[in-house]
Amino acid sequence: MKYILIISMVLLRALNAQSQENIVLPLNHDPTLKIQNGTYIKDIDNIYLPYLGNWETQWEGKKMTITIQKNTKQLLTFPNGDYYYEDYLIIKFRVIDLATQLEFANTYAISNLKDAKIRSISTGKYNQLSFLYMDPDLCNNSGKIKLIRNLGNPNELFYQYRFDEFWMPDNCPYLTQAEIPIYIPTVNVTLTKQ
Fold it and tell me: Which of 58, 62, 55, 56 lies closest to 181 in space, CA to CA?
């Protein structure tokens, strides 16, 4: 009898662990919901689809070309041991001076997804996505980017940038965040699909 009880407990524990690995939530799930270890936050409704591809904009004598790509079932881990899987977007970008063709920034060579400087962080509401911009090469300067779909024209995205809270690293050669160069637009622009 004791042997049967022990086997039952082992099987129950294994089934419970397996069921945690099979929880799938949509991207726009209730944000107050506690995410269990092994959960997969999946783009079930193809929310990311209209954003994917190559886009371009010009502003203040510069041109930015971006590629938005989807990464599926990526493992996210935390220092306390928690983990889950998530579909998310990254943006690779290239910024040049229109007059001289001088290249200010180019992240197309990044192959490790964790090194991407722009990554989706939430789906938001009303046909928009939010991204985090963080540049470790420029004192971890950071900001939030919002891409809003133009429902009247599927070949346009409205881009908005907002500076994020910033803590100056000790080894940063700049005195203030305002002095740190930022090569992506910090003004509202329209991205056009290429």
Answer: 62
What letter would DSSP give residue 17? H
Q: What's the mean pLDDT in 24-53?
A: 92
Taking only the tens place, the pLDDT of each residue in 44-89 is 999 999 999 999 999 999 999 999 999 999 999 999 999 999 999 9
Rounded to an integer, what distance in angstroms lies between the CA atom of residue 85 and that of residue 58?
35
Name the residue among 136, 131, 104 with its Cα closest to residue 118. Answer: 131
pLDDT digits (tens, 9 = 90+) for 138-191: 998 999 999 999 999 999 999 999 988 778 888 899 988 889 999 999 999 999
Backbone angles phi, psi at 52, to 5 degrees: -70, 150
| Cβ-based neighbours of 172, under 8 Å, separated by 6 or more | 139, 180
Contact (CB, 8 A) for 86 and 114: no
Tell me the backbone φ, ψ of residue 4, rounded to 5 degrees.
Answer: -65, -40
Cα gap 94→30, rounded to integer Å: 35
| Rounded Cα distance, 144 and 130, in Å | 7
Q: φ and ψ at 113, to 5 degrees?
A: -55, -30
